[in-house]
Each structure stands twice: as structure tokens, then as C-alpha cells.
Amino acid sequence: MGKLDGRIAIVTGAAQGIGNGSARVLAKHGATVILVDFAESVEAAAEEIKAQGYKADWRRVDVSKLEDVQAMVDDVVAKYGRVDILHNNAGVNRRVKFEDIDPKTRDFIFGVNIIGVWNMAKAVYPYMIKQQYGRIINTSSVTGTRVVDEGQTTYSMTKGAVSALTRALAYEAGPHGITVNAVLPGWVRTPKVEQVCRDNRPDDPESAMRDMAAFIPLKRLCRIEEIGDLVAFLASDEATYITGTEMVIDGGSTLPETFDILHA
Ligand SMILES: NC(=O)c1ccc[n+]([C@@H]2O[C@H](COP(=O)([O-])OP(=O)(O)OC[C@H]3O[C@@H](n4cnc5c(N)ncnc54)[C@H](O)[C@@H]3O)[C@@H](O)[C@H]2O)c1
């Protein structure tokens, strides 16, 4: 018996990275997982999960387009009868200092991280109300909500918005048996983060990974499956009384009060 047996779960941004790890863990616990992404590789990602004997399906959608998102969710419910879990995870980032960022980049980041998250929640919500059951887990971040780095003004703003939506929607959704929570990852080893390391140190990207890990109390980056474990917990009957919360999962990376010059 898996703790998510019989549940229907939608995971966005599931072709790679955190969404992919989450999809695999939810499927391992018995859920039928619909992997959603605009990347073509989402099909292969779903097939890989099915090849391991778990239940998976896929849909190609740009989460920033409400009509497409609604049609996708309607189609999933028509096929599977319900939608129990949404891991609202697709997100993008561009590191640009505030004086250099332009409205086009701003709108691109807002479009996925704010509008896309809103669209997905909006599309599943009527079905969850009808069922009087639902689990919405939004991917926020420690960036913007707890800590900041250079070039992260716009991204930070979107993650603040995701955390705010989590609390406000949890308040409204509670009476309908729907919980809404956010996961706040620190550094997770995903293709996006690997790209950041390649961009910064093209000659030795692994040295950038090692240097980042050195500043994290647990001395390593998070694995995508570890975010999946937290999402599975929040979606399960072990978390029936948890709503409106933000769960930091960062290996302690946000703990230091100041840069420790004595041990550097
Ligand atoms: N990696 C980290 O260290 C980290 C830390 C904190 C928060 N996060 C958040 O976790 C989430 C996933 O990040 P990741 O590192 O796995 O990123 P990633 O770039 O490796 O994967 C993101 C996935 O989302 C998909 N996607 C992007 N825009 C989309 C759209 N408009 N419609 C549908 N799919 C879309 C991409 O195709 C990709 O498959 C994001 O919300 C990110 O902000 C990541």
C-alpha cells in the first residue's frame, strides 16, 4: 500500500529538475501522476516513470496561458475523474541586476512564476471544491522570502507572491477540505542550477558546485527527490492538519547570521 494510492496528481515543470523528482516520488507512493511541461521531453519523462511500473501520463502546456491550462485540467479530469494533488512548480529565473533588467524579462518571469502558478491553482480549484478535497503544494523559494542574492529582484518578488498566494488561498480553501502549502527550497541540484555553474565557471562547473556546498551546513546541494519527499508528505494523510505553511528545505543554508570570517 502506497500512501498516495488512487490519488490523481498534476505536477508542473515535470520534464526535469524539481518537478521531475516530485513526479517520480509521488508515483512511487502510488499516485497517478500527470507530468505537465511545455518542453517536448515531458513525454519521455512520463514514459520513464511508466517503465518502472508506476502510473504516469503527460500533457504539454505553457502554464502562463490560462485557456490552455484550463483545457488541460478539464481533459485530465475527464480522463481520470478527479484531481487530488497539484504540485504547482514550474518556474523560471534570470539573474539580472535591477538597473539592467527590462520589462520584457520582468514579464517573462512574472508570466510563469506568478501568472502560471495562479492559472494552475485557478483551474484545479473548482474540481477540488466539488470533491471537497484537495492538496495544493506551491514551489516558492528561500530566495525572496528568506534571503536574497544579486540579480534576483524580480525572481524574489515572484516567490514572495507565491508565498502570499499560499497563505491567502489556504484561508479560503480550508472550509472545502483543501490544504495549500508551499515548499521553499534552498540550493537544489537541477539542470537550471547546473547551467548557472557552467555560465559562471565554464572551465570547471563542478568547482562552483563544491564551493556552494561548502557554505551549506549539510555540505551538499539538495537532491530533487528530497523535495519530492516533502511534497509527498504534504499531499498525504500524514499532513491533514497542515495548511498555509511555508516549509523551508535548504540543508541549513539560510541559517548563518553573518559570513563567518573566523572559519572561512
Ligand atoms: N533549483 C533550485 O535550487 C531552486 C531553488 C528554489 C526554488 N526553485 C524553484 O523550483 C522550481 C523548479 O526549478 P528547477 O530548478 O527544477 O528548474 P528547471 O529549469 O530545471 O526546470 C523547470 C521546468 O519547468 C518547465 N517550464 C518553464 N516554464 C514553463 C511554462 N511556462 N510552462 C510549462 N513548463 C514550464 C521547464 O521546461 C522545465 O522543465 C521553480 O519554481 C524554481 O523557481 C528552484
Name a few traits of the molecule.
alpha/beta; 45% helix; binds nicotinamide-adenine-dinucleotide; seven-stranded parallel sheet; Rossmann fold; 264 residues
Describe this structure in words.
The protein has a 7-stranded parallel beta sheet with strand order 3-2-1-4-5-6-7, with helices on both faces. It contains 8 helices and 7 strands; from the N terminus they run βαβαβαβαβαβαααβ. The N and C termini lie far apart (48 Å). The longest helix has 29 residues. With 264 residues, the protein is an alpha/beta fold. The mean pLDDT is 96. It binds nicotinamide-adenine-dinucleotide (NAD). Nicotinamide-adenine-dinucleotide binds next to α1, α4 and α6.
The secondary-structure class comes to alpha/beta
Q: Whole-Å distance between the termini?
A: 48 Å
- CATH-derived architecture: 3-Layer(aba) Sandwich
The percent range for helix content is 40-55%
How many beta strands in the DSSP annotation? 7
| CATH class (first level) name | Alpha Beta
Biggest sheet architecture: 7 strands, parallel
Q: What is the fold-level CATH name, i.e. the topology?
A: Rossmann fold
Strand order of the largest sheet: 3-2-1-4-5-6-7
Count of distinct structural domains: 1
Regions with little confidence, pLDDT below 50 for 5+ residues: none
